[in-house]
Amino acid sequence: MEQVQAYNENLHLPYQQLPTKKQTKIKIYCQEYGHRDQKVEYINLTRENDVVKSRLQCIKCINGPYSHFRQDVAILKEILSDSLNVLKNTQFQGNLCQEFSNLYHYLNLDVTKDDIEFKFATLKKEIVYQIEECKKEVLKSYDNYYQIKEQIDINHFREIFNFEDLKKELYKYAQKGPNPSPKDQKEINDQLNKYVEKLHAKEQDKLQIQFEKFKKKVNEFTEKKCFHYYKLDQGMESIQKIIEEMKTTFSPNLFTKSELSNDNITEVLKNINTKVYSETSNVEKITPIYSSIHEGLNYKKMLQKLKEEVKSDQLFIFKSSNSQTFGAYIASDNSSGNLRTTNTPLPQPMNRATPPVNQKSFLFSLSKKEIYPIKLGVTSLTINWLANDNDLLLNFGNNDLNILSTFKQCKSQLNSGSITSNYKIGNYEMHLANALEFEIIALQIFKIPQETQK
């Protein structure tokens, strides 16, 4: 069957459509001015009828005049293969059909056994190809390495280390069986003593000269090409870890109250309290405070709900427009007041006279399976209760995660007020959401019962 290219919810990252889906083709051309040569790939599903000239749109429409409707479009190829894909990539708030679609696709109810077979066949082919390409690169590099290596003279040391004569004697000695005579034992031991004396030669001055020449050549050599042979074994270890992770494709998600969570939420809950949240009955005691999926993404509604639970331990889960899921656990300190501040201009946290010392709160990434504890002395969460329609709304840590009231152009600066030393992070600003600026398309907040934290 011919493989086709489709687009995922970002509308620009290609993936192979699974073979068990019907791949009906239809050729329609866009009627937007200047786009007549473009094929229709999307159907705009926005409620705003008066602002959309045509619901049949091409890639130029999505990247141009209708770019602000990216979260409101369906992919035509996917709809043609399965009607239940209509709302697969949209983000309509407070819509039951959208909620059903989110849950349906979250559970992957459309995936068949044949799809899994095809996926592994594709992975196997790709891995073999990548391994072969890697081998070519390494062997090509070795040819250059060998040319440089040949310039290093090690003959003097090779003569000292020469074990060939002793090797022959050891073979002879081995043939004498498990009980060699005392004479044979003495002879082989004397020969080994001579070899050891050669290794510990007293003529160190002459040897030092040879060694300095060797080191000079080695320094010149390693500046040009250093052979890190151990990386081949390290690569295999990494592949084995990835395969072990892939084996957990089917695994339980104990936190069924969140449509945004995945199986990695278990580690987040255990990080809050391993003993308590190893039991499903305690996980069920976690209650929702606010969900944009059910109530719409509205900062005023969110603030109202948070005011009612201002002294509670809270779990935030965000989903960005590029499919990254992350969040924060914010622990209140009821013994000495609240760790959260009221408004951005205020220097001190609410209900506290001294700087906060945070030992429990942390940020996390469900997509990357990482946890970033908030540093000691850093306020875990600053809530701007007086936020307007375009203002900083939530500041986790020391700008480690900033959420705006528009839920657009949000930013992250990990390691400012969080600890990331357990992970290799190349760019602290892009790591959490895979972007310098990102849009939040879904948010859920939960109350963590404090009686379970005892």
Describe the structure in brief.
This is TLDc domain-containing protein. The chain has helices at residues 59-63, 76-81, 96-106, 113-149, 155-161, 164-174, 182-199, 204-224, 230-246, 265-272, 280-283, 292-295, 299-308; strands at 5-7, 14-16, 42-44, 56-57, 73-75, 287-291, 313-320, 325-330, 362-365, 370-373, 381-383, 392-396, 401-404, 440-448. It has 454 residues and is α+β, with helices and mostly antiparallel strands.
Helix and strand layout, with pairings?
Layout lengths: L4 E3 L6 E3 L25 E3 L11 E2 L1 H5 L9 E3 H6 L14 H11 L6 H37 L5 H7 L2 H11 L7 H18 L4 H21 L5 H17 L18 H8 L7 H4 L3 E5 H4 L3 H10 L4 E8 L4 E6 L31 E4 L4 E4 L7 E3 L8 E5 L4 E4 L35 E9 L6
Antiparallel strand pairs: 1-2, 3-4, 3-5, 6-14, 7-8, 7-14, 8-9, 9-10, 11-12, 12-13
Helix pairs in contact: 6-7
Beta-strand content bin: 5-15%
Structural class: alpha+beta
Largest sheet: 6 strands, antiparallel
Q: Which of globular, elongated, flat, extended, rod-shaped describes the shape?
A: elongated
Q: Uncertain spans, ≥5 residues at pLDDT below 50?
A: 1-16, 334-339, 341-358
- Supply the number of helical segments: 13
Q: Give the radius of gyration.
A: 32 Å
Report what the structure shows.
The protein is α+β, with helices and mostly antiparallel strands and 454 residues long. It has 13 helices and 14 strands. A hairpin with a 4-residue loop joins strand 7 (313-320) and strand 8 (325-330). Helix 6 (164-174) runs antiparallel to helix 7 (182-199). The longest helix has 37 residues, at 113-149. The two termini are 59 Å apart.
